[in-house]
Amino acid sequence: MMKCLLTVFVVGILAGPVSAQSVADIVTDDFFNGIIDQSDPSCVGRNFYTRSAFLEAANSYSQFGTADDTRREVAAFFAHVTRETGHFCYIEEIGGPTYPNSQYCDPTNTQYPCNPDKSYYGRGPIQLSWNYNYGPAGQNIGFDGLNSPETVANDPVISFKTALWFWVNNVEPVLSQGFGATIRAINGGECDGGNTAAVQARVGYYTDYCNQFGVDPGTNLSC
Question: Can you say whether residue 66 is alpha, beta or left, with left for phi > 0 and alpha for psi between -120 and 50 degrees?
């Protein structure tokens, strides 16, 4: 009996904790393709979003996957990405340019003034929106977010970098509060009955991905 326990103990030490898996180990080709394969073959995003672009972008954000169990954080990130892009179908917000507030400009934000000829509607995996996000994201990543916001829809690596930039700055700080807090951080308008179906969809993707990764989704899943 003692020998068996010792063997299990030694194997556990050699194997290490499951949560020590790298992001690349978790986001396999099968996982990534399992999302994108659910979109329509005609979707423009199918030829834009790739696992290699995501991993290249993730290399610039080493803190991604460190705020919680890596598997749970990756599941949360891709749950939102799946919802925001329709399984990697959309690069730009549906009807973004035609919405009444299509420019998504906050004129009171003088630190990141809008270019009157540009619009800051949703683009990329997390659908980055508003001048006050495009400006600092561009500064951090290295592109002109205020004068060339369309870069987010034209360069897949930069596109994923904007999603990761938003995530580590706005979502990681609330991860410990549960998945529901991440919904509020990304699209709070859906919470408190704003769009129950959308919230349920995000939670569904999240729990599905947690199951695929073999990790408990935790508590406080809704908002």
Answer: alpha
Contact 75, 206 (CB under 8 A): yes
Q: Contact 202/79 with Cβ under 8 angstroms?
A: yes
* DSSP letter string, 109-128: -TTSPPPTT-----BTTTTB
Instruction: Give the pLDDT of the chain (223 residues) as one tens digit per residue.
Output: 434 433 333 333 333 344 468 999 999 999 999 999 999 999 999 999 999 999 999 999 999 999 889 999 999 999 999 999 999 999 999 877 766 666 899 999 999 999 999 999 999 999 999 999 999 999 999 999 999 999 999 999 999 999 999 999 999 999 999 999 999 999 999 999 999 999 999 999 999 999 999 999 999 999 9
Q: Enumerate the active-site residues.
A: 84
DSSP of 76-107, one letter per residue? HHHHHHHHHHTTTT-SB-TTGGGSTTTT---T
* Structure token digits, residue 171: 């979502």
User: CA-CA distances (angstroms) from residue 195 to 62, 81, 148, 157, 171?
Assistant: 33, 17, 32, 31, 20
Task: Give the C-alpha separation, 152 to 180, whole Å.
Answer: 27
Distance of CA 63 to the CA centre of its chain: 14
Radius of gyration of the chain (CA): 19
Question: What's the chain's length in residues?
Answer: 223
CA torsion through residues 131, 187, 179, 207, sign: negative
